[in-house]
Design goal:
- This protein is α/β, with parallel strands linked by helices.
- It has two domains: 145 residues, 3-Layer(aba) Sandwich (Rossmann fold), CATH 3.40.50.2000; 191 residues, Glycogen Phosphorylase B (Rossmann fold, 3-Layer(aba) Sandwich), CATH 3.40.50.
- Helix content is 41%, strand content 16%.
- Strands 3-2-1-4-5-6 form a six-stranded parallel β-sheet. It has a six-stranded parallel β-sheet with strand order 9-8-7-10-11-12.
- α8 links the parallel β7 and β8.
- The longest helix is centred in the last third of the chain and has 20 residues.
């Protein structure tokens, strides 16, 4: 093992949001815990995201509630109680996170490379991770573990915490439902959502294949309305859990599903952490960068066409992470393309069962 890591006794991680990103970060933390379980890890995390990861082993969490404004920084300072860390991972470039980093005492403050140092991020770090070319967000986060000399981990694993009662609840749903797929239809930005009638047609297709379909999502109005629209247009939605589960229950529900269909949203990445394949629907962001990490072959994307039409260049010739814009881009994703991925995925599942 690299001697570098042996010099780290106390590590602080600053990654506040969002659900998908903390799922990516959790893989990096699991890598460190696996190879260096004696390191004391403190993770400063957002209030909602904490609910998903709060039982993670070998990690002490400090919740940063951005809704508290200045008081959030005061509470952070009190929680830190003057503690000095051997290293701090500044894993978020938003100014709110950068400002929090100044309150954390650490010998080494490790931030992103220059290309990713936005919103004055570089001012709050004294060391940078290695630059990467066209890396998935998760691989980008792994650069922080690389900076400590932590051995690589293949395949990537998460070891997501699930309380016994949440797992039991999901098993009860599985027993009642039988074989099922989950559609998690809503992203926080409505532009990233597929059309309700097309989700409904995908649900009908799954039903014809002998697989029941359930909906999941958060309590926001956008989730509830899109879920209701889908149910109105399909007679084959067996149940809707939208706004009715905790994040842990949702994670467990995703765990026992055959597959998940979702746009670029948190539950897609949650499903990935528990080994469930995802058919990701993409138009605005490059799925090679933000897609469900272990299911990129099942992504249905019109991003390449959209970004070339808007910028006049192929995605390879644009800055990594360039986004396409527009309220109707997701309409470019056809039901036929999604059903083709369903067929491919179900065939893979069947082959694995035979093996």
């Amino acid at each position: 093992m690299n001697s570098f890591i042996l010099k780290i006794e106390k590590l602080c991680i600053l990654r506040l949001s969002a659900i998908g990103d903390v799922c990516h970060a959790a893989a990096m933390v699991n890598r460190i815990v696996r190879y260096a379980p004696n390191i004391e890890i403190t993770w400063i995390i957002g209030k909602v995201e904490y609910q998903l990861l709060k039982d993670m082993s070998n990690v002490r969490f400090i919740v940063f509630d951005k809704k508290l404004g200045k008081q959030a920084y005061q509470q952070l300072q009190q929680s830190l109680d003057g503690q000095c860390f051997d290293a701090l991972f500044v894993m978020q470039v938003a100014f709110r996170a950068n400002w929090a980093a100044r309150l954390i005492k650490a010998k080494r403050k490790i931030g992103f490379d220059w290309a990713r140092s936005k919103e004055l991020h570089w001012l709050f770090a004294n060391q940078r991770i290695a630059a990467q070319q066209q890396a998935h967000v998760l691989d980008g986060f792994m650069g922080f573990a690389d900076a400590l000399g932590v051995p690589s981990m293949h395949p990537v694993s998460w070891n997501m915490p699930l309380a016994e009662e949440d797992d039991l609840w999901a098993k009860q749903q599985l027993q009642a439902l039988g074989r099922y797929a989950v559609i998690s239809p809503a992203a926080s930005n409505s532009d990233r959502n597929w059309l309700a009638e097309r989700y409904a047609q995908a649900a009908d297709y799954l039903h014809a294949k002998g697989i029941k379909v359930v909906l999941c999502g958060g309590p926001a109005e956008i989730d509830k309305q899109l879920g209701a629209d889908i149910q109105q247009q399909s007679q084959h939605i067996t149940a809707s859990y939208i706004g009715k589960t905790s994040l842990k229950q949702m994670l467990a529900l995703l765990k026992y599903a055959d597959l998940v269909i979702a746009p670029d949203t948190g539950p897609a990445h949650m499903a990935t952490t528990v080994g469930t394949p995802v058919i990701g629907l993409y138009a605005h962001s490059n799925p090679r960068r933000t897609g469900p990490y272990n299911s990129l072959e099942y992504v249905v994307s019109v991003y390449d066409e959209a970004i070339q039409k808007q910028r006049g260049k192929k995605w390879q010739d644009l800055p990594w992470g360039a986004r396409a814009k527009g309220a109707n881009l997701m309409a470019g994703i056809t039901v036929e393309a999604v059903c083709a991925k369903i067929d491919k995925l179900l065939l893979t599942i069947a082959d694995k069962k035979i093996d």
